[in-house]
Amino acid sequence: MELIQPGLGLMFWMTITFGLVLFVLTKFAWKPILKALKERENSIEDALNSAQKAKLEIQKSQAENQKILEEARLERDKVLKDAQATATSIINQAKDKAGDEAAKQLDSARLSIQSEKNAALTEIRNLVGNLSVDIAEKIVRKELQSESSSQALVQQYLNEAKLN
Question: pTM here?
C-alpha cells in the first residue's frame, strides 16, 4: 500500500522539484515560448488579413473584369452591327449603281438600234429611189426610142398639164 499513499518526504521533494522546474521554465523558457506563440499568432493573423485583402481584391478584380468583358461585348456587338450596316449599304449602293449602269447601257443600246434602224431605212429609201429612177429611165428610154412614141408622150403630158 505504500505505493498508493505517498510519503510526506516524497511530496516535499516533488513540490520543490516542481517549483524549481517551474521557476527555471518561467525564467528562461516561458517568455521565449510565449513570444514565439505570440509571433505565430501575429503571423497567422497577418496571413488571414492578407488573405482577406487578397480575396477582396480578387472579387474587385473579377467585378472589374466582368465589367470590361461586358463593355467589350457591347463594343463588339456595336462594331458588328455597324459593319453589317456598312456592308448592306455598300451592297445596296452597288445594286443601285449596277441598275443605273444597266439602264444607261440599255438606253444607249436603244439609241444605237434606233440610229442604225434610221440609217438602214435611209439607205433603203435611197436604194429604192435610185432603183426607181433607173427603172423609170429604162422605161422612158424604151418608150422614147421611136419618135412617134416620144411625140405621143409629150402630147399626153401637155394635155395633162392643161387640165391641171
Answer: 0.41
